[in-house]
Amino acid sequence: MGTAVDISFPSGRDHPSFDASLRTSGAGPLRRGRVTTLQVNVGKLCNMACHHCHVEAGPKRSEVMSGEVAARVVEVLAHNPGVEIVDLTGGAPELNPSFRSLVSQARKLGRRVIDRCNLTILFEPGMEDLAHFLAEHRVEVVASLPCYQRENVEKQRGMGAFGKSIEALRVLNGVGYGRPGTGLLLDLVYNPVGASLPPPQAGLEAAYRRELGELFGIQFNRLLTITNMPIQRFARLLERTGQHEAYMSLLVNHFNAATVPGLMCRSLLSVGWDGRLYDCDFNQMLELPLGADPDAGPRTLWRLGSLDALEGARIATGDHCYGCTAGAGSSCGGALR
Predict the structure, then answer these.
(1) Maximum Cα–Cα distance across the chain
(2) Which DSSP category does 286 fall into?
């Protein structure tokens, strides 16, 4: 896992900034590499309102990517062949009217497409053929399942969420997802229920595989562990329960410089529902503009040429970045070490 830098601080005092920790460890400043992933947040509308959601998504949110912005995403893809992956997120991305068009056009351009699926969306009206659509276009499904136990899932996601999630996994298995030899990838995502770091990814994956297989006959490809970010809805939960300072201390004191080379912001460009650009989805939710200069004005899909021009640019950082660099690290692709 590499050596964690000891930057502990006395209770009641401010902790060092993330940039200061980068400097102390010799890992900063944080700069971009080549953009290989376009992560597109198509909106905050969702059929769920999970406690840990950094997007603050929910059924009443009105922020939804328009067809015009979605069309511009496809144009940017067509002019930037170095982008290998289109990562669709939300909210529940499948609720966006342009979701299926984005999927089919990105696949026609030869890109890998990821759908970050909350599983329960499969049972919403109009989604009856969703699993077949995803399989037909060979979309990679990354599905949120914060635990293999009913109680923990429903603490985060509400009553009935566990049963629907299990049934949705069975539906996906039924069309080939997660099964050997099909090439249809089904990864599961674990988030801690409370203010703690995820356990080691490999050991937890073995437990998921055993429990889901023995109890429900479910198969999947990988388990990804993701640290809860101390922003938005989860940050307010920490404040209400008096855990915010302790959680930040946990993240800061487990800062691991060995995770920095693999941070997703180095190879990912985040696109907001309105076409604005950010260094990552977390920065998007905090409205931290692309790059290190907050006074440079918003960058948008319409002010974007070749993505190659972004290589070497500074990345906007904040205290929440400790969430990606604590312990084994955390990214949209799971643990970093």
Answers:
(1) 55
(2) H
